[in-house]
Amino acid sequence: MSVAMRLALGSILVATLVLILKYYAYLATGSIAFFSDALETMVNLVASSAVLAAIWLSQKPADHNHPYGHHKAEYLSAVLEGVLIVLAAIAIFKEAYDALLNPIPMTMPASGLMLNAGAGVINGLWAMVLIRKGRKLKSPALVGDGKHLLADVLTTVGVLAGVALAYLTGISELDPIVAIIVALHILYTGWELIRSSVSGLMDEAIPDEELHMIRQIISLHADGAIEAHDLRTRHAGKLTFLDFHLVVPGTMSVHNAHDICDRIEHALKDHNPGMAVTIHVEPESKAEHQGIIVL
């Protein structure tokens, strides 16, 4: 089992434990804010299961119907997680509205606060693991899951403060108000996750800093060529796709031109092992006198 698969499985186990803690916190207090926090964790559990399935699918090798691989499956998982987050926010709005109309006094808040706080600590630690490992593995599904958990931690902190304030002041309406604030935060998190995932599905180019580094590598390792132009990039999961035109002297042999391409490709893959490079060789007459000048 790959590292990414083990992390995804770990997320399911963590989400199950945190859900149990948060649900018992809700039972102990009757707090709608705690209920909203538990509902978000239920979404985490469903989403973590989707992440596991997406990572398994994304790791399948390329085949006849998918010659570029299955890497975009992780973006579909992240989009699904975003949609589930939005649905959870809508459910919380409904519960909070009902609680505002019919406030319910909270009971035994101390045990509920401790349970919810413990769940928040577990989520926070696991979120940092997922984000760090997800970036290292270039897994948008793991990073998305980690960011969602981190948002969940911030939610838990706000919920704890709100519930404590509602109990100390005796103002029951504060509890559903906190739940509404939680729902708004969850709604924003879901929208951001959907937006970032759709950019991957739409073949968005890599960041400018990474593109600048790639241009430098091409320039430094294309000795013998004249220029490179029409450089295009896109990312799909852990893979980065790069293609460009390389202009060489018209009298250069195919063998020598191929050697230059190999040298550039090896340098690029040393920089980023998950890069698929396509180079189109052109004669000097096709030079545009712009783009990447060979040093």
Automatic annotation (TrEMBL):
The keyword Amino-acid biosynthesis does not apply. This is Protein p34. The chain crosses the membrane at residues 7-26, 32-55, 75-93, 113-131, 151-171, 177-194. SUPFAM superfamilies: Cation efflux protein cytoplasmic domain-like, Cation efflux protein transmembrane domain-like. It is found in: Cell membrane. Residues 11-202 form the Cation efflux protein transmembrane domain. One of its GO terms (cellular component) is plasma membrane. It comes from Cohaesibacter gelatinilyticus. The lineage of its organism: Bacteria, Pseudomonadati, Pseudomonadota, Alphaproteobacteria, Hyphomicrobiales. Keywords: Cell membrane, Membrane, Transmembrane, Transmembrane helix, Transport.
